[in-house]
Design goal:
By secondary structure, the chain is α/β, with parallel strands linked by helices. It has three domains: 47 residues; 98 residues; 127 residues, Rossmann fold (3-Layer(aba) Sandwich). It contains 15 helices and 16 strands. The strands form four sheets. It has a six-stranded parallel beta sheet, with helices on both faces.
Length: 381
C-alpha cells in the first residue's frame, strides 16, 4: 500500500467516515481510501499522487511518526509501547502519530498518547511537524518484517537510544488454582496458526479439568475452517467482534495457550500467564524478557530451513505458494544474498486453507505430548 496524497473537489459519500473536506490536501496509507479514489473520475478529484517517502538526514524535536499500512493487533501494541517509551524518555520535545487506523484506541486509551491521526492527516496538520518519520524507512530492521520478524519495541528503543525495559501493567498475581483456560489458535497466517491436530488434542485433554474457551474470528477463513473440525459442545467458543472487545476479554483470562498472534501481545501487556507454542517466529523475539508466558520450543530442521525461520506468512515464488521448505528454497541462501525481493505476496491468501489442512513442516513437527507435559507441570495436574 503506497503513501499517497490527494484532494477532492466534492464530498464523496463512501468516505464520509473520514471527515474529508473538499479542496484540502490530505496524506494517507489506507487501502480503502486509495481504492475509492482510484475509481473516481478525474473530474471529481483534484489529484491522487503516490508520495515518495524521504529519509531524514536529521530528526527534529517535533516529529510525526508514520506507521506502516495494514498492521495487525500485535504490531499496533508494539508500536504503541515504543512510542510511550519515547514520550517518557523526553528524547523529543513533541510528536504525533499517523495511520493508527482501527487501533487508535490502543494508542489513546491504553497508552495515553495523543495527537493521533488515524486514517488521514491534512497538509496543514502535517506542516506543524518539522520531521516526518516513517518507521519502515528509517529503521533498517523494520523494513522486512514479513520475512525477517524482529522485535519492534526493541528496535525502536535501540534507534532512539532508550533503555530497553518492558511495559507491563500491574495486574493481580498468578493464582495456581486455575479454573479456566483460554486457547488462541488463530493467526493471520496459516504458518503461525495452531494445527488442527494440536488443537484437538489440547481440547480433549483440557476439557476434563477446566472450563475451556477457544477464541475464534468469524471474519477469518482460517478460523472458520478450524471451527468446522472441533466439537463446540465441549468448549466455549468466543468470537470477539472487534479489537476492543477482544482486549477486554483477554484482560480477564486466567491462563492462555497462544500461537504467534495479536492476543499474545495483549496477554503480555496485562501480565497474563500461559504458554506460547513457537512456530516460524522466535519466542526470544515474541516474549523478549517476559517471563510469565513460557515457550514450547520448535526445533524443526529440514534441508532448506531451520525453525524459527522468521517468516510471518507464506510467499509467492515463481507462481508457487509456500514457505522455504515446501518450495525447496534454502533459507540461509535467500537471507545471506538478500533475495527477499523475489518473494511476493500475490495470491497467497487464496491458499491459506490448503496450508491449514496440510501444515508446513515446522507445524507438523509440534510435539503435543511436550505441550501437555508442560501444562501438567505448570498447573500441578
Amino acid at each position: 500500500m503506497p503513501y499517497f496524497s490527494f484532494s477532492l473537489n466534492y464530498k464523496q459519500k463512501l468516505l464520509n467516515d473520514f471527515n474529508i473536506k473538499p479542496n484540502q490536501v490530505y496524506f494517507s496509507k489506507n487501502n480503502y481510501i486509495w481504492k475509492i479514489l482510484n475509481k473516481e473520475k478525474k473530474s471529481k478529484t483534484s489529484f491522487v499522487n503516490k508520495e515518495r517517502r524521504e529519509k531524514l538526514n536529521t530528526i527534529g524535536s517535533n516529529v510525526l511518526f508514520c506507521l506502516p499500512p495494514s498492521i495487525g493487533l500485535g504490531d499496533a501494541i508494539e508500536y504503541a509501547q515504543a512510542l510511550q517509551s519515547i514520550e517518557k524518555s523526553n528524547v523529543l520535545k513533541n510528536f504525533g502519530i499517523a495511520f493508527t487506523e482501527q487501533y487508535s484506541f490502543i494508542f489513546k486509551d491504553i497508552f495515553k498518547l495523543d495527537k493521533i491521526y488515524p486514517y488521514i492527516i491534512s497538509k496543514k496538520e502535517l506542516n506543524q511537524f518539522d520531521s516526518v518519520f516513517h518507521f519502515t524507512l528509517e529503521i533498517e530492521a523494520l523494513k522486512n518484517q514479513k520475512n525477517i520478524r524482529s522485535n519492534i519495541v526493541k528496535e525502536i528503543k535501540m534507534f532512539f537510544k532508550i533503555d530497553d525495559k518492558i511495559n507491563i501493567l500491574p495486574i493481580s498475581k498468578f493464582n495456581k488454582k486455575i479454573k479456566k483456560i483460554s486457547i488462541f489458535p488463530v493467526s493471520n497466517s496459516p504458518i503461525r496458526t495452531m494445527p488442527l491436530r494440536v488443537l484437538k488434542h489440547l481440547i480433549n485433554f483440557l476439557k476434563k479439568n477446566f472450563i475451556l474457551e477457544v477464541y475464534l474470528d468469524n471474519d477469518s477463513e482460517i478460523s472458520n475452517l478450524l471451527f468446522k473440525h472441533i466439537k463446540s459442545k465441549d468448549i466455549v467458543i468466543i468470537n470477539s467482534k472487534d479489537p476492543e472487545e477482544l482486549i477486554k476479554n483477554i484482560k480477564n483470562i486466567e491462563y492462555g495457550i497462544f500461537m504467534d498472534s495479536g492476543p499474545l501481545h495483549v496477554a503480555k501487556l496485562f501480565n497474563k500467564n500461559g504458554i506460547l507454542i513457537e512456530s516460524t517466529v522466535s519466542a526470544k523475539i515474541l516474549l523478549h524478557k517476559y517471563k510469565r508466558i513460557k515457550n514450547i520450543n520448535n526445533n524443526y530442521v529440514s534441508s532448506y530451513c531451520k525453525s524459527p525461520c522468521g517468516l510471518t506468512d507464506l510467499f509467492n515464488y515463481n507462481n508457487e505458494i509456500g514457505c522455504y521448505n515446501t518450495l525447496k528454497l534454502n533459507h540461509l541462501k535467500v537471507k545471506n544474498n538478500n533475495l527477499f525481493h523475489f518473494m511476493g505476496r500475490r495470491d497467497v491468501k487464496n491458499k491459506y486453507t490448503n496450508f491449514i489442512e496440510k501444515p508446513v513442516g515446522c507445524l507438523k513437527s509440534i510435539n503435543v505430548q511436550d505441550i501437555l507435559n508442560y501444562i501438567k507441570k505448570d498447573l500441578s495436574l
